[in-house]
TrEMBL record:
The chain crosses the membrane at residues 38-59, 65-85. Keywords: Membrane, Transmembrane, Transmembrane helix. This is VP11. Residues 174-200 are annotated as: Disordered. It comes from viral metagenome.
Length: 200
């Protein structure tokens, strides 16, 4: 492969690399936060389930049977509600999804870093084929990933192409969008007045 073969694809690969780094950091943060939040569901469920077992096993020796039934009913109800809420909000599913996305993004980032650090004539693969494969893998990872509430996802470097939307027009769609840096190794795109009017 010659350097010219890669020059058309490297800006896109660099954008994907930067996006992998940014998204892996955000999904890692979300995974760690989800792991902390699950404590508020699992600990009460464990404690109340143990209490229910104690009440059923031998609480009638110290408490009235009707009181034991009420306590057992209440604790079972709370355990059921907590379990239903945990399932409704997909706590475990979202946590595992964030972990998987974080690992996949980090793996893709490492692979891209090692490839781009090599001289173009030493990469040993076709630039177009490699770029298409990497773009497809990135898309598949993002398709499986959950949607994050973090506003910084709107600053994903993947949006930063050669013809990105002007910042003042971008903000009309979302206040979360901020000024994006120029595309890697390319000058920022210039937009004519007619192009800006077409977004209005």
């Amino acid at each position: 492969m010659t350097e010219h073969d890669w020059s058309s694809y490297e800006p896109t690969l660099v954008r994907i690399k930067h996006s992998c780094f940014a998204m892996h950091a955000l999904y890692r943060k979300r995974y760690l936060l989800s792991r902390e939040r699950v404590i508020y569901y699992d600990v009460p469920i464990i404690v109340l389930s143990a209490m229910t077992s104690v009440f059923i096993a031998g609480a009638e020796e110290w408490l009235n049977a009707s009181i034991v039934k009420v306590l057992t009913c209440v604790t079972s109800l709370i355990v059921g509600v907590l379990g239903a809420l945990k399932k409704f909000f997909k706590i475990d599913e979202n946590r595992e999804s964030c972990l998987e996305t974080y690992k996949d993004m980090f793996r893709l980032f490492c692979e891209l870093s090692m490839m781009l650090d090599q001289p173009p004539d030493s990469r040993g693969v076709d630039a177009q084929k490699y770029s298409t494969e990497l773009a497809n893998r990135y898309s598949e990872i993002m398709d499986r990933a959950i949607v994050l509430e973090d506003a910084r996802t709107m600053e994903n470097p993947i949006y930063n192409d050669k013809a990105n939307m002007p910042s003042k027009l971008r903000k009309r769609f979302s206040k979360s969008f901020k000024e994006l840096p120029p595309a890697p190794e390319t000058p920022p795109a210039r937009h004519t007045h007619a192009e800006e009017e077409s977004y209005a």
